[in-house]
Q: What sequence folds into this?
């Protein structure tokens, strides 16, 4: 079915295209404007670097949903599994263990989040969560407690006479 865009619709589309700052929405609106101006789907597709099937889909989506729904931004960021406060509450449960000197691992934190959510979260999510809450990697000690002193190490080395 070939959808036609009326002159009234064209004026609304043109006005919205001038107002928008989103390049993706602008491209969608330009496809509709070119369709009204008499261009065929393959020509529009070539001009806007789309497929002709995509152009056809854009026109049918506009006719089905209307202009307001067509230009609404449907994909927004911040798709977190829980709120910042909920994440903080789980991380706070590890503070007592850390204060006692126990080593906290990402594996343990991930297990707590997996249990809370009832599914596998993935390590990447946990690392981003730790960065978001300001956690950092701290090694328990810089050297082994049973390491020999520097004098004993130098004495054991085979040194050439000078």
A:
């Amino acid at each position: 079915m070939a959808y036609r865009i009326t002159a009234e619709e064209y004026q609304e589309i043109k006005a919205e295209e001038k107002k928008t700052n989103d390049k993706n929405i602008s491209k969608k609106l330009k496809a509709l404007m070119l369709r009204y101006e008499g261009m065929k789907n393959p020509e529009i597709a070539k001009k806007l670097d789309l497929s002709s099937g995509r152009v056809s889909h854009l026109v049918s989506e506009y006719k089905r949903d209307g202009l307001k729904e067509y230009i609404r931004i449907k994909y927004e960021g911040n798709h977190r599994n829980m709120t910042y406060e909920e994440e903080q509450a789980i991380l706070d449960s590890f503070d007592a263990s850390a204060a006692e000197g126990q080593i906290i691992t990402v594996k343990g934190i991930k297990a707590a989040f997996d249990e809370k959510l009832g599914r596998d979260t993935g390590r990447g999510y946990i690392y981003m969560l730790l960065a978001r809450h300001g956690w950092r990697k701290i090694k328990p000690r810089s050297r082994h407690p049973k390491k020999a002193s520097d004098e004993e190490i130098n004495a054991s080395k085979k040194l050439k006479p000078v």
Summary: The two ends are 96 Å apart (CA to CA). The chain has two domains: 7-71, 84-132.
